[in-house]
Amino acid sequence: MTVRPAYCIAIDIGGTKMALGVFNSEGQLQGDTQIIPVSFDEHKVADAHQMIFAIAPYVEEARQRYSPLIGIGLSICGNINKETGEAVLIPNLHWRHLPFGSMVRNAFQLPVFAGTDVRAAALAERLWGVARESQFFAWCTVGTGYGGYLFLNGKLYDGYHGFAGPFGHITWDEEGYPCGCGRRGCFETFVAGPAIARAGQAAVDAGHSPLMAELSQSGRVTTQTVIQAYQQNDPAAVSIIEQVARLIAINLSGLINTLDLEMIVMGGGVIQACPQLIERIKHHISRYLMSDEARRDLRLERETFTNSALYGAAADVFLRSGVIKEALGA
Question: Domain locations in the chain?
Answer without folding.
Answer: 2-123+307-325, 132-302
